[in-house]
Amino acid sequence: MIPKNILVTGGAGFLGSHLCDRLIEQGHEVICVDNFFSGSKRNVAHLIGHPRFELVRHDIVRPLFIEADQIYNLACPASPKAYQHNPIKTIKTSTVGMVNVLGLAKRCGARVLHTSTSEVYGDPEIHPQTEDYWGNVNPIGPRSCYDEGKRVAESLCMNYHLAHGLEVRIVRIFNTYGPRMHPDDGRVVSNFIMQALRGEDLTLYGDGDQTRSFCYVADLIDAFMRMMNQDEETGPVNIGNPTENTMKELAEAVIKVSGSNSGTTYLPLPEDDPKQRCPNIDMAKRVLDWQPKTNLETGLKHAVDYYRERMQKGEL
Ligand code: NAD
Ligand code: UDP
Q1: In this structure, which residue's CA is closest to atom 15 in ligand 1?
Q2: pLDDT tens-digit profile of 230-274?
Q3: 0.85 cut: is pTM over it?
Q4: Distance CA 245, CA 299 (A)
Q5: Which CATH number fits domain 5-177+216-241+273-293: 3.30.1050.10, 1.10.10.10, 3.40.50.720, 3.40.190.170?
Q6: Probe ligand 1: pick from 9, 15, 98, max atoms within 8 Å of CB?
């Protein structure tokens, strides 16, 4: 393996920090760019001082002047609570920020892996979702700053590829969980674990029968790197775990794994909350020879251990 200069935007976030770890382990030079909106220095604190790691505070909505062979573009708040905090900024990150990243890649001749999302499918009318499904997105709803921003970002990637021959790789990520997910970001796995560890009732929105498919972070990062380093497929390629669970089942699993005495309580379903979500990962299996290896119970155990340790240290 030849060491490369690799830029990770959003590298201090949940997924980005795990990616930086893996790239450093493999011997690459890693530049992590982040504005710390939803990520934190704590996620990469163990890498600071490493001779091949550099942390840069920068907002990708402004142009960047960095040299890189490969770019993983992860910068964008990912949880509904975070991306709805400042919706216009969220759109700017996925549009203006994306143009800046693609412009940088064009200047350097770098390959870009862009992290899109299952949210481009909106509230899907076909199930499970395949990459050729165009989606059912409300363009003016509360999620649109994220969904539509990500749809524009995919379009920008494809147009830079077609117009300038830029090498792009697009992954559509389905719900992912694991250590370093922000404890208060409102996503279901971190909410449930924090509630279970605090002995509070787990909050099920709606009737709790809506489904998601949860992929453990280590499996996802493996897929990112396979996607970046193959020469056949531009994507988009779905990356996620095809095992579908209702939120009720997830709540039961979290209570079991954490050994908590918590019960459950019901709250209203947020507007535009998709009823079902499950990836078809045939393309990832075929092109990347990839499928998730970690089952929900094992992954939840790692996540519970992480939050429990931080609580014991008094950080949460
Ligand atoms: P995260 O919020 O933990 O990480 C995003 C990082 O980007 C944060 O560190 C944040 O501070 C940074 N950031 C945001 N706006 C920025 C900007 N304008 N300039 C520079 N940095 C900026 O979220 P995550 O779960 O690690 O998600 C990473 C990427 O993967 C996102 O693009 C997200 O849309 C995508 N994704 C994640 C999931 C998931 O389940 N985690 C699912 C689908 C897609
Ligand atoms: N959810 C829930 N309780 C919570 C947080 C979320 O029941 O405390 C539900 C939410 O309504 C959605 C699912 O869990 O149906 C996944 O929500 P999340 O925000 O994690 O991801 P997304 O909706 O973006 O897939």
Answers
A1: 76
A2: 999 999 999 999 999 999 999 999 999 999 999 999 999 998 888
A3: yes
A4: 14
A5: 3.40.50.720
A6: 15
